[in-house]
Specification:
- The complex is a heterodimer.
- Chain A is an alpha/beta fold.
- Chain A has two domains: about 140 residues, Oxidized Rhodanese, domain 1 (3-Layer(aba) Sandwich); about 120 residues, Oxidized Rhodanese, domain 1 (3-Layer(aba) Sandwich).
- Helices cover about 30% and strands about 15% of the residues of chain A.
- The radius of gyration of chain A is 18 Å and the shape is globular.
- Chain B is mainly β.
- Chain B has one domain: Immunoglobulin-like.
- In chain B, strands 1, 2, 5 and 8 form a four-stranded mixed sheet that branches.
- In chain B, a hairpin with a 3-residue loop joins β6 and β7.
- The termini of chain B are far apart.
- In chain B, about 40% of the residues are buried.
- Classes of the chains: A alpha/beta, B mainly beta.
- Chains A and B meet through α6 of A and β3, β4, β5 and β6 of B.
Chain lengths: ~280, ~100
């Protein structure tokens, strides 16, 4: 797999906006950004209200995903280009989610909304209307999704990568610093996890670093690129970004995203937790 | 439902749900020739220069972070290749205020 199979840049998107069979999708938790202006032709997916189960803490199920994509007018053989704010966190999460449900042709816009805005490229407020489709999803591909027991089992044996900021890793903060901090859970990290913040995989403008830089980053941080890997963060979107870098860009064969992440792990009774700086 | 990771609205007034006694707030305004700049990107870097958080400025040019005690850097990015760093010290119970002219 090469980089161009999974990632496109802003100039490419601008040149291919009107291609038949191409659907741009903006994914955000706060969709007010889309409402104020988005790339022409893009439909929106609301990470919170459309991708999450409204009752249980889990994703929408297979049928729910089929209904969502059918309603958005996305067909099974469409090329889906995902982008969003927050340095593409939620777009990377959605990418992982499209892969989880077996969508064939999906790519990320490198740098997402930020790079597009910093380039002063066009944003519009017109909302496209796309005819509904009859989308069929696959069973979840659990080779890319980790659950809590696998994380505990991976301690000391597989690569565990904590992609939160250093202060969340050490236990000084419980959430990213743009959020209020009070939460009912323990601080810290999974023992033996390496602290490799997601941001190290990205440039200031939100684009991914080169394959060479990424390989050097993870190798030098103590990740054995020949071993299985689980990435986690607080709720699983920043770790989708790192999952994308490791599996889709570097092509590592066995990389899972632990979407339960710290909000689940840090609330479990009896599991080992470590505090303090990386060792 | 689990609270997500998107930033809350970047408004000039501290949201009513936030108890300042427990927070080390860093907030500021981005201006160009005295006018607030919305849609600029404010990045919070820790004392080692490591990225910690990022928000997009709101209509009033405001950004806000909930940090911890210590020294931080706020880097503001905007269209046209603008990148401006400001140093700031945060303390729980206080609002450290910044004005960033670009």
């Amino acid at each position: 797999m090469s980089r161009s199979d999974v990632l496109v840049d802003a100039a490419w998107v601008e040149a291919h906006l009107d291609d038949p069979g191409l659907v741009l999708v903006e994914v955000d938790e706060d969709v007010s950004a889309y409402d104020k202006g988005h790339i022409r032709g893009a439909v929106k997916i609301d990470w919170k209200t459309e991708l999450q189960d409204p009752v249980r803490r889990d994703f929408v199920d297979r049928t729910g995903f089929e209904q969502l994509l059918s309603g958005k007018g996305i067909a099974n053989d469409d090329l889906v280009i995902l982008y969003g704010g927050n340095n593409n966190w939620f777009a990377a999460y959605a990418y992982w989610y499209f892969k989880l449900y077996g969508h064939g042709n999906v790519k990320l816009l490198d740098g997402g909304r930020k790079k597009w805005e910093l380039d002063s490229r066009e944003l519009v407020t017109d909302v496209p209307s796309r005819p509904a489709t009859d989308y069929k999803a696959q069973e979840q591909d659990l080779s890319i999704r980790a659950f809590r027991e696998e994380v505990v089992d991976a301690i000391g044996s597989q690569n565990l990568i904590d992609v939160r900021s250093p202060d969340e890793f050490s236990g000084k903060l419980l959430a990213p610093a743009h959020l209020p901090q009070e939460q009912a859970q323990r601080a810290g990290h999974v023992p033996t996890a390496r602290s490799i913040p997601w941001s190290k995989a990205a440039n200031d403008d939100g684009t991914f670093k080169s394959d060479e830089e990424l390989r050097k980053l993870y190798s030098e941080a103590g990740v054995d690129l020949n071993k299985s890997t689980i990435a986690y963060c607080r709720i699983g979107e920043r770790s989708s970004h790192t999952w994308f870098a490791l599996r889709e860009l570097l092509g590592l064969p066995d990389v899972k995203n632990y979407d339960g992440s710290w909000t689940e792990y840090g609330s479990l009774v009896g599991v080992p937790i470590e505090l303090g700086e990386p060792k | 439902m689990t609270q997500g990771c998107a930033a809350p609205a970047q408004t000039a007034h501290l949201p009513a749900t936030v108890d300042l006694a427990n927070e080390a707030v860093i907030q500021g305004t981005v201006t160009r020739e005295g006018n607030p700049v919305s849609s600029a990107y404010a990045r919070l870097l820790d004392s080692t220069g490591e990225f910690t958080a990022e928000v997009v400025t709101g209509d009033e040019g405001v950004f806000r972070f909930f940090a911890a005690d210590g020294d931080w850097t706020v880097r503001v990015l905007a269209a046209g290749g603008v990148s401006v760093d400001s140093s700031v010290t945060a303390k729980v119970g206080e609002v450290a205020a910044l004005e960033v002219a670009i």
